[in-house]
Amino acid sequence: MIIRIKNLKAETLIGVYPAERKAKQQVVLNLAIDYDPSVALVSDKIEDALDYDAIAKSIKDSLPKQKFQLIESLAAHVAHMVLEQDRAREVTVSVEKTGVPAGADAVVAEYRLRK
């Protein structure tokens, strides 16, 4: 089963250029997390499922404490965090950073990681 977390907003220090490194910027994350829900489908209990609320909270709590130059590095960091969850088997993380390059709405990096 795939659980998706869409448009999760978080702040972090990200960027290569000196002007970008002066203040945290908002990024938008989208996650697709694959896990085996067989136990949860029978029990209908959160203890047996992938706790997407806990995952989203840990990401939002972690990113303001981090520093990245590249959105690729940020995407990999989040993917590794998600796979620390016992139930997660695979994750695809998309990170959107607005405002660059000039004339574009955003730049997006997507990273897929499997246990």
Description of the molecule:
It is a single chain. The chain is α+β, with helices and mostly antiparallel strands. The chain has a single domain, classed as GTP cyclohydrolase I, C-terminal domain/NADPH-dependent 7-cyano-7-deazaguanine reductase, N-terminal domain (GTP Cyclohydrolase I, domain 2). It is built from three helices and five strands. The protein has a five-stranded mixed β-sheet. The protein is elongated and about 50 Å long.
Mean pLDDT, rounded to whole units? 95
Which class of secondary structure composition applies to the elements? Answer: alpha+beta
Alpha carbon gyration radius = 15 Å
Tell me the β content: 35-45%
The poorly predicted ranges are none
User: How many strand units?
Assistant: 5
Strand order of the largest sheet: 3-1-2-4-5
Total of DSSP H or I helical runs spanning 4+ residues: 3
Which sheet architecture does the biggest sheet show? 5 strands, mixed
Distance N terminus to C terminus? 15 Å
CATH topology: GTP Cyclohydrolase I, domain 2
Q: From the 3D coordinates, which CATH architecture would you assign? A: 2-Layer Sandwich
SSE sequence, one letter per element: EEHHEHEE
Tell me the domain tally. 1
Described by the principal axes of the CA atoms, the overall outline is elongated
- Helical content stands at 25-40%
Which CATH top level class fits? Alpha Beta
Q: Tell me the name of the CATH homologous superfamily.
A: GTP cyclohydrolase I, C-terminal domain/NADPH-dependent 7-cyano-7-deazaguanine reductase, N-terminal domain
Oligomer type: single chain
